[in-house]
Amino acid sequence: MSWHTYMLFIGASLVLCLVPGPDMLFLLGRPIAQGRAAGLCAAFGINLGAYIHLLAAVTGLSALVLASATVFTVVKFAGAAYLVYLGWGALRAKGGFALQESSGKSTLRHVFWQGFLSDVLNPKVALFYTALLPQFTSTHDPRPVAHLFELGVIGNTVGISTSVAYVFLASRMTQALRRSKTLSAGLTKAMGALFIGLGAKLATEKL
């Protein structure tokens, strides 16, 4: 595989990482509401979910899901329901998710697995791997599976690097905001409404 192909794939992965979506919203919400540690846990949880999608795509499972209307619909509605669940939890929260830095192991573990589920239950991520990866291989490739997995690891490395940068930027910009109970509560409610809106959009749109 040529150096040009690798660079083209890295560029495509970076552009897709910058496109707003449920994962980005969840990722930005953690450092805003709970601090940098929670944001990093969310980033690594989302990245682990991306590896599940990568493995599914390489083994053909993603193509199977996308080919089956019933299975695809189930995955889509599960993802939509999870987004609405997160949004409803944010709307019900009193005074924000947390007004102090979240450092408890149980809290950070919970955020990690929330990020993981946010990514795993997002059918658009499955579509990304199934549609994009084959564009960078050929029928004459002697090791197609190995090269697909290699590209996926590169894409996920771009993803985690971008996510960590987002977390540090969001944490730095919102430290003052989180000291205000009124602003923290307002940010939490706004994020909750956005999650519910994204869930409703995912449930109704055709992918």
Automatic annotation (TrEMBL):
Stated name of the protein: LysE family translocator
GO molecular function: amino acid transmembrane transporter activity
Main location: membrane
Organism: Trinickia violacea
PANTHER family xref list: ARGININE EXPORTER PROTEIN ARGO (PTHR30086), ARGININE EXPORTER PROTEIN ARGO-RELATED (PTHR30086:SF20)
Cellular component annotations (GO), alphabetically ordered: plasma membrane
Cellular localisation: Cell membrane
Family matches, as InterPro entries: LeuE-type
Top-level taxonomic group: Bacteria
Keyword Glycoprotein: no
